[in-house]
Write a structure and sequence with these properties.
Low-confidence stretches of chain A: 107-112
Oligomer: homodimer
Radius of gyration of chain A: 17 Å
Strand order of the largest sheet of chain A: 1-3-2
Helix content of chain A: 40-55%
Shape of chain A: globular
Largest interface: A-B, 48 and 46 residues
Number of helices of chain A: 4
DNA sequence: TCCTGATACGTAGCATCACTACCTATTGAG
DNA sequence: CTCAATAGGTAGTGATGCTACGTATCAGGA
């Protein structure tokens, strides 16, 4: 599916994916793909910069490790990241309720 | 609420708002505000360019009229616009299901 | 009369953010 | 040795909503 629509929601997905344990970037992509039955297949050029943003913002902490000669950058939620995730979840609930109502419902009153 | 998150969903909202009859831009803003209990209050600088985009894409048709000296541009869904709205609704259902699952659920499998 | 606020439409420039298209490197299979 | 999978990364682009303006009419109050 088109991830263009993700604008503003990607960070929350990444944080949620890191909630139950540290992961490296590639694993995040796979986890999201598996979690959504393949419907959400993010390109690396989307995920890596996003993780860097989150790290710069102090929401995750990244650490280098080397596994069998292959370097990996593993990310872990910080306390701030946990709080941000809660906020993102609340934002999402409100957002989906609002858009759902306006898009699916028929509450638009008659004009003029 | 922050309309930044609307990226990619605004067009659908505008089309849905025009579904039950023609409206002019200002009325679209008011209708969306009323429909969402004031939670979605779009600035004119967001709505007018968006309506122009939709018109350029042939999804709505705009016509000038003058009411008591005040000019209004009234927009009406085209057949193409109706089809686009159906597509947008389907996109939204899939999108909200995917994001909801990844954000709220716990289907992220264990890595490594 | 003049001024303000609500109504109504519009544009220019900016910022955000995901995407495409690349590049580098290691490991294991053929 | 070569290729695919794994793993990380950057540069530049494009879409799109936002801020901050500008224009105009009309009603109502000072």
């Amino acid at each position: 599916m088109r991830a263009e629509s993700l604008k503003g929601h990607l960070d929350g997905l990444l944080l949620a994916c890191l909630e139950d344990g540290p992961r490296h970037g590639y694993a995040v992509i796979e986890a999201l793909r598996d979690a959504t039955g393949g419907q959400l297949d993010l390109p690396t050029g989307t995920v890596y910069p996003a993780l860097h943003r989150l790290e710069a913002g102090g929401l995750v902490r990244g650490r280098w490790s080397v596994v069998t000669g292959r370097r990996r950058r593993t990310y872990q939620l910080t306390a701030k990241g946990h709080r941000a995730l809660s906020g993102k979840r609340a934002d999402w609930r409100q957002f989906s309720a609002v858009v759902g109502a306006a898009l699916e419902g028929r509450p638009c009153p008659d004009p003029t």
